[in-house]
Amino acid sequence: MISMEEGLYLRQTLFDKAQRIVIKVGSAVLTGENGLDAVIIGNIARDLSFLHNTGREVILVSSGAVSAGRKKIAIDDTMVLGLKEKQALAAIGQSCLMQAYDAAFGAFGKNIAQVLLTHRDLAKRDRYLNVRNTLFTLLKWGTIPIINENDTVSVQELRFGDNDTLGAHICNLIEADMFICLTDVLGLYSGDPTADPQARPLYTVVEITPEIEQMVTHVKSSLGTGGMQSKLKAAGIVASGGGSSFIGPGRQHDILRRLFSGELIGTFFLPKKERINSRKRWIASVLKPQGALVLDDGACRALLERGKSLLPSGIVEVVGDFDVGDAVHCRNGRGEAIGVGLINYGAAEIRKIMGCHSSRIESILGYHDSEEVMHRDNIVLLRPRKEQLQE
Ligand SMILES: Nc1ncnc2c1ncn2[C@@H]1O[C@H](COP(=O)(O)OP(=O)(O)O)[C@@H](O)[C@H]1O
Ligand SMILES: N[C@@H](CCC(=O)OP(=O)(O)O)C(=O)O
């Protein structure tokens, strides 16, 4: 806990220092009764141009393609959409969205650039670095990149699923100082403010504890995808990369200008003190684990207390099917994930060598790629605490 004064001081200091900023705007902000809300899009363009004119680098992550497409071809509001309908609507709405932004930013003399991404673009390390280079080039040229998930081609199991998560990954990818998430509520409340009149606003969150997580319900606006849950998750991803986050109202006039001039609006999330390096952040937050290894107590201790690599001798069970190079969870005997890392052998190979000394790998498999099943440079400990070990 910190005092209100300390929270406000840190908030203002971090706003003043922020030079590279990712701003995410949700569908509920951008869409009105008749489709994309030109007034709101104009406000956003003015606000972002104001930040840009102060010499800051700004990147916009914008939702709204599906809801814009839905309004454009007048699909009944009560119709429940499946994945293929949403993908088709995104194809219709994305071009409307970009046309609206192009006109709005053009009025302030700004050039924009459309970047559509799938999860695969960030899950492969070479593509991840490629996206990073493109974004840096766009920023160097003074343009404002506008990013959305490439919904039309993203297959279900390889989706980000929501733009809050995508925005947080972009923040970490380009080492942004701050993630600003603009939505249809004033910020994070102690309960869902649209359902609970007693819910009170939170101004500063030092750490996303289970208590904070419990404040958030599954409820989302009629147009939203991720809800407050995915915004909290996003703030956690950004905090672990050393950035701060803000959740606040996207439909208010001059919101960014007012925020940066010190007005107390919305909820501010402080960065974590111990930040993990960019490669480990990529492993822990971008990759989707494809299976798990259950470890004995000695292996859990080696990882958690001594930061060692994982050897085959400490593995007691292999869960799921995965290939060399996939991300895989490490679990203790109670089934809790203690870490996640890149695997040096496929699931079938590990089933053969688990419980054995590393010196036997070659005789069992007929080849020997590495002593370790996971190298410590590729392991991210999720909860490095002693209580994780079995008594
Ligand atoms: N504790 C909470 N504080 C604020 N909003 C909450 C909370 N719990 C649930 N919500 C819901 O989250 C919604 C915002 O998320 P979402 O609909 O996905 O917006 P967006 O389209 O901007 O991403 C709010 O409209 C609100 O109903
Ligand atoms: N990519 C989708 C938006 C997905 C999403 O996260 O929506 P939201 O919760 O409104 O930010 C679209 O452009 O419609």
From TrEMBL:
Record-level GO cellular component terms: cytosol
PROSITE patterns: GLUTAMATE_5_KINASE, PUA
Gene3D superfamilies given in the database record: Acetylglutamate kinase-like (3.40.1160.10), PUA domain (2.30.130.10)
Places the protein is found: Cytoplasm
Primary site of residence: cytoplasm
Binding positions for substrate per the UniProt entry: S63, D151, N163
Pfam families: AA_kinase, PUA
Catalytic activity line of the entry: L-glutamate + ATP = L-glutamyl 5-phosphate + ADP
UniProt domain PUA: residue ranges: 291-374
EC number, as in UniProt: 2.7.2.11
SMART domains cross-referenced by the UniProt entry: PUA
Annotated positions binding ATP: K24, T183, D184, T225, G226, G227, M228, Q229, S230, K231
GO BP, one annotated term: L-proline biosynthetic process
GO molecular function: ATP binding; glutamate 5-kinase activity; RNA binding
InterPro entries, per the entry: AceGlu_kinase-like_sf, Asp/Glu/Uridylate_kinase, G5K_ProB, Glu/AcGlu_kinase, Glu_5kinase, Glu_5kinase/COase_Synthase, Glutamate_5-kinase_CS, PUA
Family: Belongs to the glutamate 5-kinase family.
Protein role: Catalyzes the transfer of a phosphate group to glutamate to form L-glutamate 5-phosphate.
Protein name: Glutamate 5-kinase
Organism, as annotated: Desulfofustis glycolicus DSM 9705
